[in-house]
Every structure is written in structure tokens, then in C-alpha cells.
Amino acid sequence: MRSLEHCNLIAADTARLAADHGAIAVPTLITYDAMAQSGAELGFPPHAVAKIATVRRAGLTLLETMWTARLTIAFSTDRHKSARPVARSPK
């Protein structure tokens, strides 16, 4: 297996091990950001909103962790076309 999906909670030693074995990490960032912005409004229960916030915060540091480990990073999203837009035009 060469691909690590999501990776928001990756530890530094795991990132180094993955890099040493030629893995490619594909973090999920925008999805958690969008859900953090509108999860409660969309009816997510409070415990889910709290978990999303934790995973989102971890995602803010994962890029540095992966970079330091010299882990190859690919970017993609799990955003579905029916999801609310992340960026909104000013009214």
C-alpha cells in the first residue's frame, strides 16, 4: 500500500516511517474546514461538531509534520458537488 488517506491525526514517527517506505499522503483539509463552518447549521449533533473541530485543528499542523518527515504529499478533496460552497461571493 502506498497511499495514506486523510492523515489529519498522523504522528511524526508515522510520517517518517511512511516517507521511508515511499508512501504518498493525501490529507483531507477542506472538507473538515467546511464542516466546521456549517456543521451545526446543517444539523450535525454537538459531539460531531466537536470532533470535527478537533480533526480540523490537527489538520492545520499535519502539513508541517509531513514536510518535516519528507513525506510526499498529494492534494485532493472529498468535497461532494452537493456540499455547501466553502467560499461565498459578497452580497
Oligomerization: single chain
Share of residues in helices: 40-55%
Low-confidence stretches: none
Q: How many extended strands?
A: 3
Main pleated-sheet profile: 3 strands, parallel
What's the number of helices? Answer: 3
The gross shape turns out to be elongated
Written overview of the protein:
This protein has helices at 12-20, 30-38, 46-69, and strands at 3-6, 24-27, 72-73. The chain has three helices and three strands. The radius of gyration is 15 Å and the shape is elongated. It has 91 residues and is mainly alpha-helical. Helix 1 (12-20) crosses helix 3 (46-69) and helix 2 runs antiparallel to helix 3 (46-69). Strands 1-2-3 form a three-stranded parallel beta sheet, with helices on one face. 21% of the residues are buried. The longest helix is centred in the middle third of the chain and has 24 residues, at 46-69.
SSE layout and pairing:
Layout: E1 3-6, H1 12-20, E2 24-27, H2 30-38, H3 46-69, E3 72-73
Parallel strand pairs: 1-2, 2-3
List descriptors.
single chain, 91 residues, 11% strand
